[in-house]
Specification:
This protein is α/β, with parallel strands linked by helices. It has one domain: Aldolase class I (TIM Barrel). It is 39% helix and 15% strand. The protein has 10 helices and 8 strands. Strands 1-2-3-4-5-6-7-8 form an 8-stranded parallel beta barrel, surrounded by 5 helices. Strand 1, helix 1 and strand 2 form a beta-alpha-beta unit. The structure holds 2-phosphoglycolic acid. The site of 2-phosphoglycolic acid (PGA) has 13 residues, from strand 8.
């Protein structure tokens, strides 16, 4: 079985001015020791990318953007391209987060375009999937996640230029304080683990993260599950002490 390096990513969403972002990035870098067996990624808002990139220089912590457009350049007011993100120092980009799907009209088709564009630009996408509470209660969880995977990954193969990361984030668990139980999470992660090679061919190296109200208190029990390779953390990534505890629990 492939041993995958755990990945803990902090999604700062629409938080942090430049001064706040600089201070938080510095505290996290100071708290991440070189011998830690965890990859750590920070996803600040666009405005703070270069500021945080400067703080991360020389540290093992990597930079991510929270979204991207798919065109490389052009008349797309307000949009940011994968090439620009790469230029700003990003190694990763979150694609298809449920808040983008819910508030900004993201579909499986636009997610697919973004995944392809990010990979072509040399970025590692963190591809988010997950069901709503209504879909879970209707017993549709695996069907919904399966469709997101099939349509999101259409046209891609296992030999992507950069490694892909998948994040399972049940929508009902994001920012609500409701965490999926390790059993609920493991069921979907195991499903994704089986689905990925069917869709992509080789997929052993693909890490599958869990996201949704991850805290220092619940992270260790989630990370113990066989098919959970890390976490995408929102609220608890906004303070260094809670984020560093989650990193430590994964190492
Ligand atoms: P949360 O957010 O940890 O605040 O629930 C997770 C996410 O949206 O990635």
């Amino acid at each position: 079985m492939t041993k995958r390096l755990p990945l803990i990513a902090g999604n700062w969403k629409m938080h942090k001015t430049l001064g706040e972002a600089r201070a938080l990035a510095r505290e996290i870098c100071q708290g991440v020791t070189g011998d830690l067996k965890v990859e750590v990624v920070l996803a600040p808002p666009y405005t703070a990318l270069t500021t945080v990139a400067a703080e991360l220089s020389g540290s093992p912590v990597k930079l991510a953007a929270q979204d991207t457009f798919w065109e490389p350049q052009g008349a797309f007011t307000g949009a940011i391209s994968p090439l620009m993100l790469k230029d700003a120092g990003c190694r990763y980009v979150i694609v298809g987060h449920s808040e983008r799907r819910q508030h900004f009209g993201e579909t499986n088709q636009t997610v697919n375009l973004k995944l392809k564009a990010a990979l072509a630009a040399g970025l590692c996408p963190i591809f988010c999937v997950g069901e709503t509470i209504a879909e879970r209660q209707a017993g549709q969880t695996l069907k919904v996640v399966g469709r997101q995977l099939i349509e999101g990954l259409a046209g891609l193969t296992g030999d992507t230029p950069e490694p892909l990361v998948v994040a399972y984030e049940p929508v009902w668990a994001i920012g609500t304080g409701l965490t999926a139980t390790p059993d609920q999470t493991q069921e979907v992660h195991a499903f994704i683990r089986v689905k990925l090679p069917e869709l992509l061919g080789a997929a052993d190296d693909i890490r599958i993260l869990y996201g949704g109200s991850v805290t220092p208190e619940n992270s260790a029990s989630l990370m113990r599950e066989a098919d959970i390779d890390g976490a995408l953390v929102g609220g608890a990534s906004l303070k260094s002490d809670s984020f560093l505890k989650i990193i430590a629990a994964a190492g």
